[in-house]
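Q: Structure tokens for this one, please.
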Amino acid sequence: MKHYLKQMATLTFMLLMLCVVLSKEAHAQQTLADVKKNRGLTDNDVLSAVKTFMPRGGRDEYFAFVGSGNSGTMIVYGLPSMRIYKYVGVFSPEPWQGYGFDDESTLMLKKGTTDNRLPGYGNMHYPALSETAGKYDGKYLFYTDGANSRVALLGLDDFETKQVLMHPLFISTFPGVSVTQNTEYVIHTSQFPAPWELREADPVTEFESKFKSGVTLWKFEDTEDAAGTGHHIGRMIKEESFTLELPPLTLGFFDAGRASSHGMVVGLASYAGKSYVYTYDFTKAMSLKTKKVNDFNVISTQDTIEATYYFDVLGIIITLA
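A: Here is the predicted structure, written as tokens:
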């Protein structure tokens, strides 16, 4: 019986090897024209495939950094091959590389909250690359977490998260971020208005008086004098950051100016079913006095008005320039 089984196994192996050899020979005899004909491909189909093909050992020309939404992680793709190079844990634990499971990354995530908990999800969509003189410099990447009001800093030479901070005022934030032209500041806005201090208010009777929105500028330092050398030295400095208080608007997309418009921040907002545009010069706002709210620097709406800036709380355009 054992001899019979051994013979059957040998015969099966020989048949498999024969099939492999025949398959290789058939494959080797195929031409490009044969493949196109058999699969019904056009010249444009073949050209599209060749444009994205990357041979073994080849290098992609570009990287794509893609926020994965509610998983709280980032995916790094190569272009044009579309290969996945890495899953990067940012706002939530990522077991494949141990992010959020080892002591160092777990401590960073917990320090990035105001209640020492470890959120298991995020809401990340629109990143910002660090800039020098208004040009991408390839050193850092920033993300915000719309669900948990956090902001993160990633290094781009090893694709790892270096810092996570939770906003002490906002309950929800717009899941996008921007930087000034030399990455002096990282801009982070609320999305839906909410009470700031005790975080308790009646949305029917106290909406106008206690619900607020805001635009935050996180101070970023990455200079030789302030932080030494190396890609991963830069950090956001909470104590030197500030928030500009806005009326209870729902905030959307925004961006910072460059070159002749450096200093300006322009964004979209909505209130009571109408759409608005807000714009302000943060270089001027920096000279205004601040107050502490939840241990964070805030420039109040009233202080802005008293500083002679035009501020129409419910007007079509809110101008702080």
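A few notes: DSSP finds eight helices and 17 strands in the chain. The first helix runs from residue 2 to 29.
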